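Final report, results section. Input specification for complex C-07:
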Amino acid sequence: MAEATEQADQITEPATESATEQGDSRRAQMLEAAAELIAERGLARTRIADVAARVGISPALVVYYFQTKEALLIAALRESETGFYASAEDLLRARRSLRDRVETLVELTFTEESKGEVQGQWGLWFDLWNEAFRHPEVAADRRALDEQWRGLIARIVRAGIEDGEVPADLDVETFAMTWAALLDGLSVQVALHDPVVTRARAEAIALDFARRELGLA
Amino acid sequence: MAEATEQADQITEPATESATEQGDSRRAQMLEAAAELIAERGLARTRIADVAARVGISPALVVYYFQTKEALLIAALRESETGFYASAEDLLRARRSLRDRVETLVELTFTEESKGEVQGQWGLWFDLWNEAFRHPEVAADRRALDEQWRGLIARIVRAGIEDGEVPADLDVETFAMTWAALLDGLSVQVALHDPVVTRARAEAIALDFARRELGLA
DNA sequence: CAAGGTCCTGACTGGCCGTTCAATCGGCCA
DNA sequence: TGGCCGATTGAACGGCCAGTCAGGACCTTG
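Structure output:
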């Protein structure tokens, strides 16, 4: 593990330098395939050969792009995670009112899989957490993303305050922290098909909490 | 289910235990070792040989007791999970007031590892969730345990209602569901060493929420 | 064209590890 | 005493799979 330049905050092309257009698209294909496979069968059961097969290339080529299996899987984890937040930002941009935005976030959180897109695949999250628990690099990454998630919540709440929809004395940071945690916790139950904490129930709880805290009758 | 209730026995390493009950104790030894190893390095990186080495036996013996690696690891996951809730019940039995009980639960949830005991090892949870996500047997087990956890919360709240500490019109089920999810979500952040959601912060949030909902000024 | 670069592959290997197996050891009982 | 049985082991087998390697196809560009 050479001490390569690690500071870049943007996760576009950290490890390999595949400068070519074709190279980049290959990379993307593999990352997507890997993410899918992780979501389906779990990181532990995802083989280089599987990824290669799904893309329709030889296993050796996968190694050619990502030197090691671990590098590939971690990159895939990062990528799809990033994608999730990116699409959250996108969705929010289209919503104007606080109510709409809150509902959008809830919906996004509990949607099994957004129309075939890789994002939001529950399986991915469990593996991400698991990996983050040990792999410090992944942990740092995850922390940053989560910070971003809470920041996003805080931002829309502050916008709500400015618009007079939310009382100005609300502790925005604490709300963001709490609500984010609540969403996470509920997600787990829903993902694991808890018979009591169904998706509908979870959404209701999450919405109710937000509305009460934010003073949206 | 259908398992004979393994009564409380070894809490840590049996110092005085020489050769009382070879059969069951061997099983227990292996399960404990397996749980430790899973917590330390993760289920995926736990080998039969590791478990054997920790117990001080040959790998073949591990297979002799648990026919397959998977069976061993899953059993270990179950066992330690069960232990967690069991000790929660124990702790609660000693507390009388609702306040104490709530605080006890919060403390239990966020304690990194209870003085060397296997329970509460964060790593275990991530692997449990991960496994539950695919392995239906584990999923069912986990669901039952979680039901038990929420039931436990509901029980102490109802006791609080009977004692007049909590307003009688509280929706106990919903509170239990919400609070349990909140605790889970916060746990994740704390386990992953989020710089913002520290253990102290998480405990404060969890306590605050419970107190407000339960009307404990 | 030759040179040199990128992309790509099939064939191979080396190690790891779950699992099997034949054999031993030590009680227990008739 | 001898035979049965559970516990235990060392050794070996065999599958699986990440990663290597030597080369080849296909593009540039001088």
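Residues 47-49, 59-60, 63, 67-69 of chain A lie near DNA strand D (CB under 10 Å from a C1'). Chain A has a mean pLDDT of 89. This concludes the modelling results for the funded period.
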